Structures are given as C-alpha cells and as structure tokens.
C-alpha cells in the first residue's frame, strides 16, 4: 500500500512539475486519499488509495529550469528538503521529491528521516530493494542527486508512459491525474517573481 501511495504521489508531482509548478509543501496534511479511509484500504486485498495532492498555497511557478526562490524557508518541518531551510537561494522540483520520499519513509518506518536514519529495509524486511533505493536516493541531502518524479516512476513502474504536462487554470478541476488545485489568485510568472 505504501508503494502504491508513493507512486501515485509521484504521478501527481510529475503532472505538477511538467506544468512548471513546484508544490513547496508536500506533507501528509496535503495528501488526500480519495480511495477511502486508511482502515478500509488496509483491509482491501487490492487497494487503490486514489492519491490527490492538494493545498498549493506555497507553490511557485517556474521557468524551464524548474527552480524558484519564493519557496525558500517554507514547507512543513520534517518533510521539507534541506535546501528549503538552508542558505540556497533557489529551490527546484527536487525539494518536492525529497518531501514525497519523507512521507513514504514515515509510512514504512514510523518515524521521519531525520539526521542519521536507518534504511527502511533495516527496520522492515518486506520492502522491495528497488523501492528502498528510490526512497533513499530521493532523500539525498544534495538536490542534484535526487531523481525527478518521472525518473523515480520509470524505476518503480517499468514501462510507465511519461507524465504529460497539463494547463492549470482557475475554476475547472480536476487539473490532471491526482492533482487537485484551486488557485484563488494567479501564480506569478517567473519573470514577475520578486525573488528572482
């Protein structure tokens, strides 16, 4: 079930990133399970959590580089990538990848990946090695070493079609698979972002 939640979350991030948006606050409170309550999903032999990513309040629009300066210093403690709270002026889509992996790690192990943390396979014996490798690479403190959402999906779901970009506009949900976003005010374009 955790692997399914994680891959569906990566699909949502793939759509978001392909649309030129960094979420900036991927955390359990912003992940909706439309497929039912946790108890129901755990009882199902073939559960579909139907993950939806919500609350784009800290998101920022980006240019082709998928980086922005508005996201710095924001996010939920414990899930935010090191660069969100460090000295870096630019934050990339890889900060969302770190946060998604932190959520998956917590679901697997029962604690957040803080400081020197054990590999999930050292805590649970039932974790697939490739799944564990993708999570650990996604938790790398160096953003450039983390996979993109599509790269992670390619490893977890071989033969997966690339995530198509979608246009996110006000007032017409849904905006793409697994993305629920209601934009109250237009996101600033990269050129109008005062932090650039």
Identify the notable features of this structure and list them briefly.
single chain; 196 residues; mainly alpha; two-stranded antiparallel ribbon; two-stranded antiparallel sheet; 33% helix; disordered C terminus
User: Number of helical runs?
Assistant: 7
Basic shape:
globular
Oligomer classification: single chain
Strand order of the largest sheet: 1-4
Portion in beta strands: 5-15%
Biggest sheet layout: 2 strands, antiparallel
First-residue to last-residue Cα separation: 40 Å
Radius of gyration: 16 Å
Average pLDDT metric: 78
Secondary-structure element pattern, one letter each: HEEHEEEHEHHHH
Helical content stands at 25-40%
- Secondary structure tally: strands: 6
Alpha-beta content class: mainly alpha
Low-confidence stretches: 165-177, 181-196
Provide an overview of this structure:
There is one protein chain. The chain is mostly helical and 196 residues long. 33% of the residues lie in helices and 7% in strands. The protein is built from 7 helices and 6 strands; from the N terminus they run αββαβββαβαααα. It has a two-stranded antiparallel ribbon. A two-stranded antiparallel ribbon has the order 2-3. A two-stranded antiparallel ribbon has the order 5-6. The longest helix has 17 residues, at 2-18. The N and C termini lie far apart (40 Å).
